[in-house]
Amino acid sequence: MDKIWHPFTQHALSNPEIEIERADGAYLYAKDGRKILDGISSWWVNTHGHCHPGIVKAVQAQAGKLEQVIFAGFTHAPAEELAEKLLRVTGNHFQHVFYSDSGSTAVEVALKMAIGYWRHTGNPRKNVVAIEGGYHGDTFGGMSAGGRGVFSDVYKDFLFDVMHLSFDGMEQSFEKIAARGDVAALILEPLVLAAGGMKFYSAETLKKLSEICKRHDILLIADEVMTGFGRTGTMFACEQANIWPDIICLSKGLTGGFLPMGATLCTGKIYDAFYQKDRSKMFFHSSSYTGNALACAAAVASLKIWESEPVMVGIASISAVQRGAMQRFSKRPDVENVRSLGTILALDVIATPAESRGKQSSSKDGLLRRDAPRNDGYLAPVAPKLYDFFLLHNVLLRPLGNTVYILPPYCITEEELENVYDIIDLALDHLRDGREQQAA
Ligand SMILES: Cc1ncc(COP(=O)(O)O)c(C=O)c1O
Question: Selecting from 3.90.1150.10, 3.30.565.10, 3.40.50.12160, 3.40.50.300, what CATH number does the domain 20-52+310-439 have?
Answer without folding.
Answer: 3.90.1150.10
